[in-house]
Amino acid sequence: MIYDDNDIPIAMFSYLHFPHPKSKNIKMGHRTVINPNYQGIGIGNRLIEFGAKDLLKKGFRYLATTSSPSIIAYRKQSDKWKCTRKGYIGKLGKTSKIAMAKSSSRYTTSWEFINNNNENKES
C-alpha cells in the first residue's frame, strides 16, 4: 500500500500463491488498485514491477493476467514481460449480461515477469 502525505491511500498491489501441481514457486497477480486521482501516470506498472522484482529475488516466478488496455500496451513494448497467452473472449461473447460483468467479455492476456532488460537487475 502506498499513501500520500495526508495518509490517503494512493495504490495497492497484491498477489497470491499459485497452487500448481509441479511448480511450487509461482505467485500470481491478484489485484492492483490505483486511487483515481493518481491513475494514468504509471504508478500501477511501477508498483507491480517492484513487487515482481522482489519475488524474483526470492526465487519465485510472477505471473499475471490482465484485461487493462493500458497494461497490455505497456507489457507489449516492455522487455521485462513475456506474453504467455494472448487474447481471449469467452464462449458467452460480448452480448450476454453475465459476460459483461466478467472478463469473459474482454480481451485478456497473461504474462510472466522476466525482468530481461539492460537495467541493473538488483535494483
Tally of structural domains: 1
**Spatial ordering of strands, largest sheet:** 1-2-3-4-6-5
Poorly predicted parts: none
Taken from the alpha-carbon principal axes, the silhouette is globular
Helix content: 10-25%
Quaternary status: single chain
Task: Tell me what the structure shows.
The relative contact order is 0.16. The longest helix has 15 residues. The chain has a 6-stranded mixed sheet, with helices on one face. The radius of gyration is 16 Å and the shape is globular. The mean pLDDT is 85. β1 and β2 form a beta hairpin. The two termini are 20 Å apart. It is α+β, with helices and mostly antiparallel strands and 123 residues long. It is built from 3 helices and 6 strands.
Q: Which helices and strands appear, and what pairs or packs with what?
A:
Blueprint (H helix, E strand, L loop, with lengths): L1 E2 L5 E9 L8 E9 L8 H15 L3 E6 L2 H9 L3 E5 L11 H4 L8 E5 L10
